[in-house]
Predict the structure.
Amino acid sequence: MSRTLTHFSVLHEIPELGFQEVKTSAYIASALEQAGFKVTRQVNGTTGIIAELDSGKPGPVLALRADMDALGHIIDGQQVARHTCGHDGHSSVVLTAAEEIISEGLVRKGRLKILFQPAEELGTGAIAMVEGGALDDTDMLLGFHLRPIEECQKGQAVAAMHYSASATLEAIFSGQAAHAARPHLGVNALDAAALAVQAVNGVHLSPSLTYSAKATRFLSDAGVTNSIPADARVCWDLRSADNDAMKQLKQKVITAITGSASAVGAEVEVTLLKEMPAAILDPQATAVVSQAISEVLGEEGLIAAKTTPGSEDFFHYLRLCPQVKGGFWGLGANLTPGLHHPEMHFDRDALAIGVKIFKASVVQVLG
């Protein structure tokens, strides 16, 4: 079994949720230390890792980033953690690349940083890493993600993935309980929530923009069926290909929610649970990745830039550190039936391709 598949087999069997990646982090940090990297554990009090390799010669500082966390699913009535977004694959690729880079002496100038980040799915892991100094003195940052088969197949790679901005809003509606026979004595929080769902569905931006806003969770229960519920909780998922459009969308959605509550005499508290910015990609970083993909897969394996409605907290790094040149690419692995599906799977042999692309990128910048 190859080194990459060995790492993957271990990481796949220890899925851990965001900021709880204790076993995952320990395994990765130990492997990096054994390889010869200077390793900082528990970055900013989290499970994050920064590994460094200094050539001792002047040059740029390049960072490679992988995410470590798994997703939470309810399967057969049980809450479980499962790697259904490929982060175990991402970590395996970057860890193997780091080991081979140091063993083959590929860093001949400047410094290489390897970042293993917690809590990508929570949208806050990258922020925690930046606050912990992960990108201090860094010139370029590269990351990647496995792609669904309909976007990119094994033997192909996308040089630039243009992710969308996303936001999760939660609204807690508060009314007044009452007997269902006397509704005039209460304020129905369920009515307010239902009205808000319809109002948000009526929110529109310019037709030239790509965006969506939809309710994804609705909870309301008085405990019996002949009472008016005093409380209701609704979550909305917002998407936009543009960061400025996301600002407009959030404001319009919040106005629709608060107006709906007011219309029936309820109160509402709206909270922004999670937010990720749209892609911020640097042409120079993308050019490095493009050349690396061409070297590994040939020109026929290099796929043009793609736009996805998905979101990635990777772009918090570039939002918070605009001086860093960022590149984010996609790796074809015949992944089906889709990311975040409980039965997601892919061709594990594709991981070796990812290792080669990262190594070729490092040689360009630090070789």
